[in-house]
Amino acid sequence: MAFSKETKSNRLLQSRRFTQDALGDAQEAFTRVLDLNASEIYSQQNLIPTSSLPYSGSSQNGETVIVDGEEVLKFWYRHRLTPSDTRNAGESSYNTWFFLDPTSSAEFSNGVNPGVLSSKQQGSFISPKYAPTLGGNAEDSTPGYQVKLTRAGTIVDPASYTFDYKTGVLQFNAQSGYTSISTDIRLTAYQYTGKTLASDAVSGYSGSFSGSFEGSADLNSLTVTGDSNLTGNTDRTGTLVQDGNLTLTGSFNQDGNISQIGDATLTGNTDRTGTLIQNGNLTLTGSLNQDGNINQIGDATLTGNTDRTGTLTQNGNLTLTGSFNQNGNINQIGDATLTGSFNHSGSYNLIGDINQTGSVFQSGSLDVNGPIFSQGTNVIDNAVALAIALG
Question: Rounded to the nearest 5°, which phi and psi values hold at 297?
Fold first, then answer.
């Protein structure tokens, strides 16, 4: 005896597998019964409009719906359907029709093989489930997502057919189809054209999100409210606005400005172009290559080689361990502790103590209000003003 198709379908709907009729529903094992891949899962469902659909007329055929800068829908107005070239046994009507694009007159006249998935098959149409409150069809004055089928400009009774929104296949009930294969019937519908999980993996994601994120990302402008913990290499282009603590482990390549409120702890090499505005303590472990100005409020602790071009404005204690190459002015309020070689071209204005271990090469004016404790070679070239107030 053949197995029962009804029993099998019922068990699959319960997320149970089907093995044989001899087992009852409760005896079958629960399992995953749906085989879905990333290209079938909409990742921008939240952008699908649930009210005020913009299109419903002939002049809008092919128009797209843009939400938050992202294309998510395409509007099709009375697109001609293509018939199957095969009729069911004992039936005189052609009951299966396909939404193909592009199409040809030969296909309209002769039909297509239903057993072959055409590369022109269109799918992923939006069904009314995405906007239950929109009760109309896609051509109504207040349009909804229900498709509208017409023949010679007259609506076809929706009770006479079933349209599969996912696959783009339309089937007439029993003998409700048409005896002529070349019958001209047309469908109006909205189609999903937004991103899927698969396209996210290929082309990336843009927009905003909240919550935690794990994985690699290529980021342009980024605004973060709250703490950020980044582990791994970070490669960024654009402005970073960070309100909260920032912890980076791994190399950090930043092309653009950074505005940081809160402590910043960077472990690994840092390569930066643009202005850094830091309100909070700054701790760097690893080499720092900085091309642009730094405005720092709070203590700064730099461990590793530092290579800088631009003005450094520091309000707070500055601790440097490793070589420091600075091309540009330094304005320092607070104590400075320098361990390692210090090469500076530009004016240096300091209010506070200097504790220096290692060589100092200073080209430009040096204004220090506070004691200098130096151990090592000190060379000051072309010092326009040298004011040292010993405490």
Answer: -115, 115
